[in-house]
């Protein structure tokens, strides 16, 4: 890639960093003793994890009867959590894949953490699939395995089976993508390692990486192709999740816009979660020179764009429900907005559609505290979106005598807490033991975007000779 | 990295010349289109009249009547062969409005995303929206004078409970589908597009004269405004101009589906124009890397169109609800199967061909492959619009004849004429674009 | 092994310089074995003269395999082994199978390609790398010249490397 960079571009690596400084700044976290703040945060998440694990264990032991489901609302809080986590798990691969294909250089500082977050979020989502199975020790029967009970196979015409394939493919391919990106950085840590243990562990996982030109050339091809296939993969995952609902004939669920609308919502919530985590990491690890205001602003712009797309989808659904002239469809949407779950609906509307519009003001999208608050607000809204779609479409079915409301039990809530414990425990482990920023990628784009390498001017003939 | 030194700021301006010879060729094409159209209309008026009736009767026997769900079933007895002309003009008007407006959309997105690579080609799409000046009156006049030929909901008495043509479902949509409101939306959509484009174009030309970065930031703002406007107007135009033809039918995806079809056609037209100008000796600074990126865009958005098409199809197929599946059934086996071939071609030309042709890196950098792909994409999406619009309007009277060929040649050559004229009005390269240097050094 | 390989190692501290140096050193008739860098440099492999990688072809073939396997499995289970009418559709319900077929294709492509990548670069967990300079994963760009494959003398090559911008020239033996 050329280093010619327009002078109107913002600096992406501040503080006059050199390549060596980058190595130093990022490896510092990995090599040093854990800080007190990290220990406290990690302990807290372990406690949350332990409490959540108790609730999940109880759910498994007793069965999913401990949830607050009833005869009308047969799917509620926990499937909401599943969709919510899968949605969040979209941003990482999106940042690394789509932004790589579009050559957005600002992605380099954030893609590592975003990909890690993706994997953890998908694991959380997977925990809800297992929880829904009731007997998670029989989970392998979701796969098409030959068996001794006759020719019993999974039903490939079922969206739930598509989901099994989509989630497992997405999880494993994301893991591969993430690991591949880690290898050069692991080699950097290996080459700097002082202790025997880190020499061994980072040596083991860096697979003998040397960074030869031949390897890099292949590596770049592999990354590009992985990005190329991961992009439709990301789309397919939430598309298939949306089809869990949309292939049915339930008013409010069966609508053709669901696939791209779910994907837009997933990107929206995923970017918001990345924003939340990066703003914390930025402060905790003092990475202000890598995660700059430009990064925060770009993230906020994407949040606004995707939030608006989601808003258009809400309005489209509402409009077509009326336009269709189907009375059940129309009722479903009126019930969402003005029925007993009106508060969930307006919570969703406020958090997802209205609040991101605040980012139209530059002063707001460059304000770190407000960005942080809004990024959390967005994910609250996205949780409510799924809740609204799922519960409000189910709670009043065709027979008014069976109309019901849903109220969660402590195990609904406890299982949700479990996923937070799992997520943050894994994220803190990642932040301590692995480089949170992709050093190789940051170094590769530094010329031109770093305050220290403002596109060096060379005087010798034959070398780069463009001036500004 | 090195090797672009031949392009020094001294020879930075480059003007396209629309030579009298080229002008003559385009006008000849226009005349040929008009003549074919004329002959086609003549034959529609005489020979096909009875044949069409025979076909219609046949289709009705085999369920064509209830499958159509559109205008024809209600008008079987009063079918006017000239309707096919009006419908063709409407279809081409919608299709080419899309290509024109995507030019603006492309530029707007590049500004919004602060994309550097595309600044060498941005003057090409920037010229496209000029064609809206041509399609706007075409669509406006067709709607005002021939709207009832195109739109089922405009048929006389259809929302009047006292009339024998009364249709309860359509009457329910009266609040949205009525003459005045539709007209307001049509005018508003085109006005917004044209006004924002004019603002953008003015800033763009000012930048050539004055330099500086103020115009750039203004264009980012205008572009952002346009993207917001497009977010709404793309869905509105799809519902109004195309989806309301099959008035009973509805699909929430339709707005994005039609937009994705427009979008990829626009990208193919941009690529084809750049390649054409390069062949003519212009724009030699457009390198393999730029072509590669244009090719990638076409490749990616062909897949995106397929995704949207397939998602819509799968959900309707899976849920199997009669009021939805009729749309595909009508096209697949209704109207005596006139549209079946187009349905198959639609997926092949718009997915398999671009997907297989544009898969390798070398293909995206080779002009001939790009041209083949552009050809497939443009013709394929013409067919996509054909199958969206024809079954609900002309139904069993549809087909591929001189009217179709004549009208598309007429529109295409008018498009070439208008865009070529617009291209001469500014340098082919935006010489003061802040990202021009980046773009000239673009190397992937 | 009893044979020792002797290398001259040129150390550079700028990516544009090393890229330029590769052309210059090669132009003077010195055979470069490899260049080690902390991050990918566009065009470096072609400058050294490495052949273009065929990994995309491998990826395509893996994808094709994935597609075939997925279609085979679904057809076998849903049409031949135990056909059932589901949702009133044909046994051969192709639209319903597109999602799983797609996932299978992606899965095979990704894993096959990455596996090929590891094998073709002979990378495996726990492998001890042949390191010429530990700083090549930090901030230095390392050019290695295998003395066994070059006819020029050590002093000559050192001169050429220095002239091309190397900040250090070291000798390394394996």
From TrEMBL, chain A:
<keyword id="KW-1003">Cell membrane</keyword>
<keyword id="KW-1133">Transmembrane helix</keyword>
<feature type="transmembrane region" description="Helical">
    <location>
        <begin position="82"/>
        <end position="102"/>
    </location>
</feature>
<feature type="transmembrane region" description="Helical">
    <location>
        <begin position="368"/>
        <end position="396"/>
    </location>
</feature>
<feature type="transmembrane region" description="Helical">
    <location>
        <begin position="160"/>
        <end position="182"/>
    </location>
</feature>
<feature type="transmembrane region" description="Helical">
    <location>
        <begin position="261"/>
        <end position="280"/>
    </location>
</feature>
<dbReference type="InterPro" id="IPR005614">
    <property type="entry name" value="NrfD-like"/>
</dbReference>
<feature type="transmembrane region" description="Helical">
    <location>
        <begin position="343"/>
        <end position="361"/>
    </location>
</feature>
<feature type="transmembrane region" description="Helical">
    <location>
        <begin position="301"/>
        <end position="323"/>
    </location>
</feature>
<comment type="similarity">
    <text>Belongs to the NrfD family.</text>
</comment>
<keyword id="KW-0472">Membrane</keyword>
<feature type="transmembrane region" description="Helical">
    <location>
        <begin position="221"/>
        <end position="241"/>
    </location>
</feature>
<feature type="transmembrane region" description="Helical">
    <location>
        <begin position="416"/>
        <end position="437"/>
    </location>
</feature>
<keyword id="KW-0812">Transmembrane</keyword>
<feature type="transmembrane region" description="Helical">
    <location>
        <begin position="114"/>
        <end position="134"/>
    </location>
</feature>
TrEMBL record, chain B:
<feature type="transmembrane region" description="Helical">
    <location>
        <begin position="338"/>
        <end position="356"/>
    </location>
</feature>
<feature type="transmembrane region" description="Helical">
    <location>
        <begin position="89"/>
        <end position="111"/>
    </location>
</feature>
<feature type="transmembrane region" description="Helical">
    <location>
        <begin position="297"/>
        <end position="318"/>
    </location>
</feature>
<feature type="transmembrane region" description="Helical">
    <location>
        <begin position="398"/>
        <end position="419"/>
    </location>
</feature>
<feature type="transmembrane region" description="Helical">
    <location>
        <begin position="368"/>
        <end position="386"/>
    </location>
</feature>
<keyword id="KW-1133">Transmembrane helix</keyword>
<feature type="transmembrane region" description="Helical">
    <location>
        <begin position="26"/>
        <end position="45"/>
    </location>
</feature>
<feature type="transmembrane region" description="Helical">
    <location>
        <begin position="254"/>
        <end position="277"/>
    </location>
</feature>
<feature type="transmembrane region" description="Helical">
    <location>
        <begin position="220"/>
        <end position="242"/>
    </location>
</feature>
<protein>
    <submittedName>
        <fullName>Quinol:cytochrome C oxidoreductase</fullName>
    </submittedName>
</protein>
<feature type="transmembrane region" description="Helical">
    <location>
        <begin position="175"/>
        <end position="199"/>
    </location>
</feature>
<keyword id="KW-0812">Transmembrane</keyword>
<keyword id="KW-0472">Membrane</keyword>
<feature type="transmembrane region" description="Helical">
    <location>
        <begin position="131"/>
        <end position="155"/>
    </location>
</feature>
UniProtKB/TrEMBL annotation, chain C:
<keyword id="KW-0472">Membrane</keyword>
<keyword id="KW-0812">Transmembrane</keyword>
<dbReference type="Pfam" id="PF11821">
    <property type="entry name" value="ActD"/>
</dbReference>
<feature type="transmembrane region" description="Helical">
    <location>
        <begin position="97"/>
        <end position="120"/>
    </location>
</feature>
<keyword id="KW-1133">Transmembrane helix</keyword>
<dbReference type="InterPro" id="IPR021776">
    <property type="entry name" value="ActD"/>
</dbReference>
<protein>
    <submittedName>
        <fullName>DUF3341 domain-containing protein</fullName>
    </submittedName>
</protein>
<feature type="transmembrane region" description="Helical">
    <location>
        <begin position="57"/>
        <end position="77"/>
    </location>
</feature>
């Amino acid at each position: 890639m050329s280093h010619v960079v327009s002078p109107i571009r913002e600096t992406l690596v501040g503080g006059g960093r050199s390549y060596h400084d980058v190595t130093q700044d990022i490896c510092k976290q990995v090599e040093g003793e854990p800080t007190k703040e990290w220990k406290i945060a990690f302990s807290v998440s372990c406690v949350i994890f332990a409490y959540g694990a108790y609730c999940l264990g109880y759910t498994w032991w007793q069965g999913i009867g401990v949830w607050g489901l009833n005869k009308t609302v047969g799917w509620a809080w926990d499937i909401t959590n599943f969709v919510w986590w899968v949605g969040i798990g979209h941003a990482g691969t999106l940042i690394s894949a789509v932004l790589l294909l579009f050559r957005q250089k600002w992605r380099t500082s954030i893609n590592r953490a975003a990909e890690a977050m993706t994997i953890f979020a998908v694991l959380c989502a997977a925990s809800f699939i297992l929880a829904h199975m009731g007997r998670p020790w029989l989970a392998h029967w979701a796969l098409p395995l030959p068996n001794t009970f006759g020719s019993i196979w999974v039903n490939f015409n079922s969206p739930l089976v598509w989901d099994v394939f989509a989630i497992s493919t997405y999880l494993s391919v994301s893991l591969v993508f993430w690991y591949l990106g880690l290898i050069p950085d692991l080699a950097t840590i290996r080459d700097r390692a002082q202790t025997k243990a880190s020499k061994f562990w980072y040596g083991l996982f860096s697979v003998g990486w040397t960074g030869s030109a031949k390897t890099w050339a292949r590596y770049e091809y592999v990354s590009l192709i992985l990005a190329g296939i991961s992009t439709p993969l990301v789309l397919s995952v939430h598309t298939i999740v949306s089809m869990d609902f949309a292939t049915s004939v339930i008013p409010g669920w069966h609508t053709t816009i669901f696939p791209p609308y779910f994907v837009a919502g997933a990107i929206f919530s995923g970017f918001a979660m990345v924003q939340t985590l990066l703003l914390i990491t930025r402060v905790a690890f003092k990475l202000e020179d890598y995660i700059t205001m430009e990064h925060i602003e770009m993230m906020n712009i994407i949040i606004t764009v995707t939030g608006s797309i989601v808003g258009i989808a809400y309005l489209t659904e509402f409009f077509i429900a009326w336009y269709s002239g189907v009375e059940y469809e129309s009722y479903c949407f009126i019930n969402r907005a003005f029925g007993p779950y009106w508060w969930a609906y307006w919570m969703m509307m406020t958090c997802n559609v209205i609040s991101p519009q605040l980012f139209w003001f530059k002063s707001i999208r460059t304000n770190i505290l407000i960005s942080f608050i809004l990024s959390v607000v967005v994910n609250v809204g996205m949780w409510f979106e799924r809740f609204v779609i799922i519960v409000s479409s189910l709670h009043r079915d065709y027979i008014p005598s069976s109309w019901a409301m849903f109220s969660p039990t402590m195990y609904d809530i406890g299982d949700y807490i479990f996923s937070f414990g799992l997520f943050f425990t894994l994220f803190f482990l990642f932040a301590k033991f692995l480089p949170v920023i992709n050093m190789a990628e940051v170094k590769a784009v530094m010329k031109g975007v770093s305050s220290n390498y403002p596109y060096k001017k060379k005087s010798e003939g034959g070398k780069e000779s463009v001036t500004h | 990295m090195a090797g672009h030194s031949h392009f020094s700021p001294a020879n930075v301006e480059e003007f396209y010349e629309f030579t009298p010879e080229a002008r003559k060729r385009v006008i000849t094409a226009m005349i040929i289109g008009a003549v074919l159209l004329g002959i086609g209309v003549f034959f529609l008026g005489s020979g096909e009249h009875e044949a069409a009736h025979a076909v219609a009767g046949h289709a009705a026997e085999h369920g064509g009547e209830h499958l159509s769900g559109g205008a024809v079933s209600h008008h079987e007895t009063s079918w006017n062969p000239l309707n096919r002309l009006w419908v063709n003009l409407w279809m081409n008007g919608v299709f080419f409005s899309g290509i024109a407006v995507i030019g603006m959309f492309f530029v707007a997105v590049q500004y919004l995303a602060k994309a550097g690579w595309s600044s060498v080609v941005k003057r090409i799409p920037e010229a496209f929206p000029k064609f809206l000046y041509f399609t706007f009156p075409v669509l406006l006049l067709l709607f005002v004078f021939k709207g009832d030929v195109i739109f089922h909901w405009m048929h006389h008495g259809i929302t009047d409970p006292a009339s024998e043509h009364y249709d309860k479902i359509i009457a329910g949509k009266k609040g949205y589908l009525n003459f005045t409101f539709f007209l307001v939306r049509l005018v508003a959509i085109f006005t917004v597009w044209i006004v924002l484009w004019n603002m953008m174009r003015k800033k763009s030309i000012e930048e050539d004269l004055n330099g500086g970065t103020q115009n750039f930031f203004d264009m980012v703002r205008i572009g952002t405004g346009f993207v917001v406007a497009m977010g709404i107007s793309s869905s509105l135009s799809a519902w109004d101009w195309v989806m309301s033809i099959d008035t009973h039918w509805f699909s929430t995806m339709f707005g994005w589906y039609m937009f994705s079809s427009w979008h990829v056609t626009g990208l193919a037209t941009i690529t084809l124009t750049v390649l054409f100008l390069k062949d003519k000796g212009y724009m030699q600074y457009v390198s393999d890397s730029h072509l590669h990126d244009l090719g990638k865009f076409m490749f990616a958005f062909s897949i995106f169109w397929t995704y949207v098409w397939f998602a819509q199809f799968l959900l309707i197929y899976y849920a199997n609800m009669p009021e939805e599946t009729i749309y595909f059934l009508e096209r697949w086996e209704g109207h005596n199967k006139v549209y079946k071939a187009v349905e198959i071609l639609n997926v092949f030309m718009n997915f398999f061909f671009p997907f297989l042709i544009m898969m390798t890196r070398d293909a995206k950098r080779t002009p001939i492959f790009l041209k083949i792909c552009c050809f497939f994409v443009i013709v394929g999406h013409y067919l996509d619009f054909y199958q969206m619009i024809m079954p609900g309007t002309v139904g069993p009277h549809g087909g591929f004849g001189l009217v179709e060929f004549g009208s598309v040649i007429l529109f295409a050559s008018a498009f070439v004429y208008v865009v070529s004229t617009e291209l001469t009005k500014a340098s082919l390269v935006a010489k003061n674009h802040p990202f021009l240097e980046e773009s000239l050094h673009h190397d992937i | 092994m009893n044979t020792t390989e002797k290398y001259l190692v040129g150390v550079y501290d700028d990516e544009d310089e090393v890229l330029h140096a590769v052309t210059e050193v090669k132009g003077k008739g010195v055979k470069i074995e490899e260049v080690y860098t902390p991050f990918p440099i566009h065009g470096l492999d072609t400058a050294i003269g490495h052949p273009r990688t065929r990994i995309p072809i491998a990826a395509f073939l893996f994808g094709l395999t994935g597609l075939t396997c997925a279609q085979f499995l679904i057809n076998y289970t849903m049409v031949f082994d135990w056909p059932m009418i589901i949702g009133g559709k044909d046994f051969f319900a192709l639209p319903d199978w597109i999602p799983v077929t797609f996932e299978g294709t992606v899965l095979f492509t990704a894993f096959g390609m990455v596996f090929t990548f590891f094998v073709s670069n002979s990378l495996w967990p726990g492998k001890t790398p042949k390191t010429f300079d530990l700083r090549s994963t930090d901030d230095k760009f390392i050019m290695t010249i295998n003395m066994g494959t070059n006819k020029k003398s050590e002093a000559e090559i050192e001169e050429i490397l220095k002239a091309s911008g190397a900040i250090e020239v070291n000798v390394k033996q394996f």
